[in-house]
TrEMBL record:
A UniProt-annotated Pfam family: Hydrolase
Keyword terms: Hydrolase, Magnesium, Metal-binding
Required cofactor(s): Mg(2+)
Full protein name: Haloacid dehalogenase
NCBIfam families cross-referenced by the UniProt entry: HAD-SF-IA-v1
Signal sequence, start to end: none
Biological classification of the source: Bacteria, Bacillati, Actinomycetota, Actinomycetes, Streptosporangiales
InterPro entries linked to this entry: HAD-like_hydrolase, HAD-like_sf, HAD-SF_hydro_IA, HAD_sf
Organism: Streptosporangium oxazolinicum
């Protein structure tokens, strides 16, 4: 039987929390109110935290079924309107909030694997759901000394949709600059980082320390940690 030549890999799309980094905290409404009160300019009344909590719950209930994401600055704007707070620049305030809250901590072993892929000439795209503005996530990547590895960032906070929304994967393919079948998407959530990308023509590798989950399609690769990805791709003669 004639063997099929493997399709080359030109790009990797890498999830962040749980894949490249240990997940970081998400600020609750009380924490946001405290951070904003410490800044010069905003006027934050006592009812702001309650208003923000209500806004966050309401928008989450609307956004989740549609896999959409309301910008955090809009949440602040709505909470200010409902509480009488004064926020001159909600976009700047959103950046200030996430600059004050620790981001996910990049795993140095995973970072080394990323550098290996980058040095091999692969296009690297960060592809993740996050509330954090792009500028804050870029600062995290710079601090971990991996910002130069990425050719593009696809963040739900920037494009307004979350995995597994089709537009998220379409944006990844566009930013990778190559056909979908030449992209390997790697992450730790089966529906978002494996099944979704595969349904949109990409190849997928699931990070799963406990092995292959039941029912996962045979064509989806499984590794225990991102450090295994370079060797996995080499075993496929993919790059």
């Amino acid at each position: 039987m004639r063997k099929t030549k493997p399709v080359k890999v030109a790009a990797v799309a890498v999830d962040f929390g749980g894949t490249l980094a240990h997940p970081g905290p998400s600020p609750d409404a009380a924490t946001v109110a405290r951070i904003l009160r410490d800044l010069d300019g905003p006027s934050i009344p006592d009812g702001f935290a309650a208003a923000l909590d209500e806004v966050m719950r309401g928008t989450r209930a609307v956004d989740r079924p549609l896999h959409e994401q309301t910008p955090f600055a809009d949440l602040l704007r709505l909470a200010a309107r409902g509480s009488g707070a004064v926020l001159d620049d909600p976009v700047a305030m959103a950046k200030a909030v996430f600059s004050a809250v620790p981001d996910a901590e990049v795993d140095p072993v995973a970072a080394h694997a990323l550098w290996t892929l980058h040095e091999a000439g692969l296009v690297c795209v960060l592809a993740c759901d996050t509330q954090r503005p792009e500028s804050v996530r870029r600062a995290t990547l710079r601090q971990a000394r991996i910002s130069d590895c990425f050719d593009a960032l696809v963040l739900s906070s920037t494009i307004g949709v979350r995995k597994p929304h089709p537009r998220f994967y379409a944006t990844v393919i566009e930013e990778a600059g190559c056909p979908a079948e030449e992209i390997v998407f790697v992450g730790d959530t089966p529906a978002k980082d494996a099944i979704g990308p595969a349904a949109h023509g990409m190849r997928a590798v699931l990070i799963s320390p406990d092995g292959r989950p039941p029912g996962l399609a045979p064509g989806i690769g499984v590794i225990a940690h991102l450090r295994e990805l370079p060797a996995y791709l080499e075993s496929l003669h993919a790059f």
